[in-house]
Amino acid sequence: MDGNNQILPIGYGICPKETMDSWTWFLEKLHECIGDVEGLTMVIDRAPTIAVSIKNVFPNAQHGLCGFHLIGNIVHTFGKNKQKTTILFWNLVRAYKITEFQFY
């Protein structure tokens, strides 16, 4: 994310499938460009191949899950109250204190 809270692409690659080899290749190329960055955090969807590849190529990086991917999965699974579920989810995501989180 940039300073305006917008996605800032730093690279892209074209691969036939999202496999472990594809993600490892992409992340190795990214590593060649940016090196080891202190405090590097990557936000990903829940694909296990990405998480494993990050651990292999950027072992000191943190990674978190993308809220938009998570809410899509939640709404798909618990679609009855889509609007209520979405509001509750984003309230939880944006809770900065444990008491706020527990409130929801």
Automatic annotation (TrEMBL):
InterPro entries noted in UniProt: MULE_transposase_dom (IPR018289)
Pfam families named among the record's database cross-references: MULE
Top-level taxonomic group: Eukaryota
Start and end residues of each MULE transposase domain: 2-72
Name of the featured protein: MULE transposase domain-containing protein
Organism, scientific name: Lactuca sativa (Garden lettuce)
